[in-house]
Amino acid sequence: MALADAIKQHxxxxxALVIFxxxxxxLWFDDTGVxxxxxxxxxxxxxxxxxxxxxxRNQVLEEEIWAIKSGMExxxxxxxxxxxxxxxxxxxxxxxxxxxxxx
Length: 103
Description:
rod-shaped; 0% strand
């Protein structure tokens, strides 16, 4: 009878161990666990940096759009800078540096 009582008294321990291991697995390795949380935090930080860069780029584009809508001066400046526009009656000069030799 003593053996049966000892088995009954300690029968819950393997079940408790299995439950404990299962809970630890869920805590650390599950989709909502600690490791997944760290990975998600890194993804959030990376996306935040991308969002900041996009906001800065969008701000520049908005300012450019506003400048183009506001008048012809900005369009002319953009054409002169990017397309090399020369007005009628103007003379275009290219100054060559004699020390700068291109091979």
